[in-house]
Specification:
alpha+beta; TIM Barrel; Immunoglobulin-like; 3 domains; 10-stranded antiparallel sheet; 8-stranded parallel barrel; about 20% helix; globular; alpha-galactosidase activity; hydrolase; Alpga-gal_N_sf; Alpha-galactosidase; EC 3.2.1.22
């Protein structure tokens, strides 16, 4: 069982995970102060730390050290994670300790305001098989109306180091999850999304180290927020050298009311420490996601085919049936009809919101196509976008008030769309009802749930607390997904938001995979997948093989290279199979079969990022006695083949058999001198190597 230890004399709590410790204490004014997050501590060592009083920098600073949830009030000048205003106009909080309780690895520290009817509980949860610490906060109104201006989930504090470096993910549509590492300035650095969704531009994952960590060595502290709407994380490095960050749902400028008797629960803000570098941090996150976040962690993801790049909006029963036959021939296990099957949806200008099959394209509905897909031995999937509507739709003409809008303001259209306000109970129930009916009536096994548009004019005329929609819309998405999965246990869902615009621990708690990016160019995908894998395991990373030249970049790449890059995740096919030659179809079927052989290793194994000469990179996956290497070299100077690729994650004292060549390699040699790669000549070279420990 997880280990939680309390020292009543010191008013000290010590939490243990398998490899780390976390300690907090109450000061004389009942503020919960941070003590330690890192390598294991004994209770005696924790008591020694608690006896220390952090010095003030000057007479202008307070004494006491960083707080577990920084609040407004008193001599506090950093970013506040909790900001409230009471009915009489007072602001700020003064704490009175109200006790604690624990069960099954869950610690709750209760704090009351000394005057106002406010109860705040700090939550900590640890697991016996993970070093991830889950934290969140509940804010309870026990009396008069309270205005909440900020309610973060948690604040995190690092031990003092001479320097700090920040790793985070940045991007844009078609260029998501680009990893950036930079020095932390002595300032407040704000990472945020104000878009109503996680966003392509930033992701609520953050890692700090002392500037010396690499893939296999060094201390790394990282956190991830389980929230799929707008969010904010504020990293503060003060002139004394201390680094803290606070984060939670919602962005700056929002405020909402907490009515008497109402409790606000913030999303989980999970944290992880490791002394084994960025690679160990990623593997720990992957294991945590697999064991404690994903709804069906034991399942391997099927090889899917998606029709979008083949047909665009030109979708009909005959064309989809022909594509399904070719997809089945290649070994696809799931056939997904993308946009264009419903209403007047012959372009992106109309029909969104009218979720019934287009009678001209599907005169007998979707059931005949679903039945044929099932006859071919595949699951049947469908693209939907439940949160959006075209103004040119029957739904909007009937319910123009159902969209986000403000009185006396225009309604900004993006992608010819507006956003439905799922915070409204009637809109939310309508969305669930048609999804439930669609799945049931058409034997649907899989939904690709898209959300292509950020929030604008996010108002709710007539509602006394309109800012709540920023939270309640996301909660409604969660609720609808949860209800659908409960009503249809066989249903699987892919999260999509114009590609990777909604990827976080909150959405993957109720979906099975994420559509990583609309950019399927394999050269670009190497970088995108590298960033995505900092937090997420391979089994949730949707990765397609599409046509050459690529529809987004016009780059030409060999089919083998496209497959080897996509094999690093949940493999999918997305090209126009009607234009592929017989040779391409045969090669593709062979590569799909090869993927199915390595799929348990890729999707269920532990991942080790590998770096070689020049632009040679790769990933190794270890599972039971198998070790699979996927290596990619987009370009190289003429006559300069890369040196053997050094492996990690294997045993020095073991031997490994190459299952394709029969060559036996020493683990020590693979670690020290690398694995020789039989790369094809020229650019866009790649290799798949299957090793077995002997």
């Amino acid at each position: 069982m997880p280990d939680l230890h309390f020292e009543p004399d010191q008013r000290l709590w010590l939490l243990h995970t398998p490899s780390t410790s976390y300690a907090v204490r109450l000061d004389d004014d009942d503020n919960v102060r941070h003590l330690h997050w890192g390598a294991p501590l004994t209770p005696a060592q924790a008591r020694e730390l608690a006896a220390r009083t952090p010095p003030a920098g000057s007479s202008f600073d307070t004494v006491g050290g960083p707080e577990e949830l920084a609040v407004e009030g008193g001599a506090r000048f950093g970013p506040a994670g909790l900001r409230v205003r009471f009915a009489d106009g007072s602001r700020g909080v003064e704490w009175r300790y109200a006790g604690h309780d624990t069960d099954a690895g869950h610690l709750r520290i209760h704090l009351d305001d000394r005057h106002y009817p406010l109860r705040v509980t700090l939550h900590y949860r640890v697991h016996d098989d993970s070093d991830v610490i889950e934290r969140w906060t509940t804010v309870e109104n026990r009396g008069e109306k309270i205005t909440v201006q900020r309610a973060d989930s948690a604040a995190w504090t690092l031990p003092h180091r001479a320097d700090y470096r920040m790793s985070h993910l940045v991007g844009a549509w078609n260029s998501e999850f680009r990893l950036r590492r930079t020095e932390v300035p002595i300032a407040e650095t704000v990472l945020t999304s104000r878009r109503g969704m996680t966003s392509h531009q930033a992701n609520p994952w953050l890692a700090l180290d002392d500037g010396t960590a690499d893939e296999e060595h060094g201390e790394v502290w990282s956190t991830a927020l389980a929230w799929s709407g707008s969010w904010r994380i504020t990293l503060h490095r003060d002139p004394a050298g201390r680094a803290t960050w606070t984060g939670g749902h919602g962005h700056d400028g929002l405020a909402w009311s907490l009515e008497p008797g109402e409790t606000l629960r913030t999303p989980v803000f999970a944290g992880l420490y490791t002394g084994g570098g960025f690679g160990a941090a990623s593997r720990a996150w992957h294991a945590y996601v697999s064991r404690h976040v994903l709804p069906r962690p034991e399942e391997t993801r099927p090889v899917l085919y998606n029709s979008w790049e083949a047909t665009g909006f030109d979708v009909d029963e005959a064309g989809q049936t022909a594509l399904a036959a070719r997809a089945a021939r290649l070994g696809a296990e799931l056939f997904v009809v993308d946009d264009g099957w419903f209403g007047a949806r012959v372009s992106d200008r109309a029909g969104l919101g009218d979720w019934t099959p287009n009678p001209d394209r599907f005169p007998h509905g979707l059931r005949p196509l679903a039945a044929e897909v099932h006859r071919l031995g595949m699951l049947f999937g469908l693209w939907v976008e439940p949160e959006m509507v075209n103004p040119d739709s029957d739904l909007y003409r009937e319910h123009p008030d159902w969209v986000l809008h403000m009185a006396h303001r225009g309604r900004t259209e993006m992608r010819n769309q507006l956003v439905l306000n799922l915070a409204r109970p009637d809109t939310r129930e309508w969305a669930y009802a048609w999804l439930d009916r669609l799945v049931a009536e058409n034997d649907i096994d899989f939904l690709k749930w898209d959300a292509n548009r950020p929030f604008t004019e996010a108002g709710w005329p007539g509602h006394e607390d309109p800012d709540r929609l920023w939270l309640d819309h996301t909660r409604a998405v969660y609720q609808i997904m949860d209800r659908l999965r409960a009503a249809h246990p066989g249903l699987r869902i892919e999260a999509c938001s114009g590609g990777g615009g909604r990827a976080d621990l909150g959405i993957i708690a109720r979906t099975d995979q994420v559509w990583t990016s609309d950019n399927t160019d394999p050269v670009d995908r190497i970088g995108i997948q590298h960033g995505f894998g900092q937090l997420f395991p391979a089994r949730v990373m949707g990765a397609w093989v599409t046509d050459s030249p690529n529809v987004a970049t016009a780059r030409r790449t060999p089919l083998r290279f496209r497959f080897h890059v996509a094999m690093a995740g949940a493999l999918g096919l997305g090209g126009d199979l009607t234009t592929w030659s017989e040779d391409e179809l045969t090669e593709a079927a062979e590569l799909v079969a090869a993927y199915k052989e390595i799929r348990p290793v890729v999707q269920l194994g532990t991942a080790h990022r590998l770096t070689g000469d020049g632009r040679l990179t790769g990933v190794g996956y270890a599972h039971e006695d198998q070790f699979v290497v996927l290596a990619w070299c987009p370009e190289r100077p003429f006559g300069h083949d890369p040196a053997p690729l050094r492996l990690t994650g294997i045993e020095a004292g073991a031997d490994y058999l190459d299952q394709d060549t029969g060559v036996v390699h020493s683990g020590a040699v693979l670690l020290g001198s690398g694995l020789p790669l039989a790369l094809p000549e020229g650019e866009h070279a790649s290799a798949l190597i299957r090793l077995r420990k002997v």
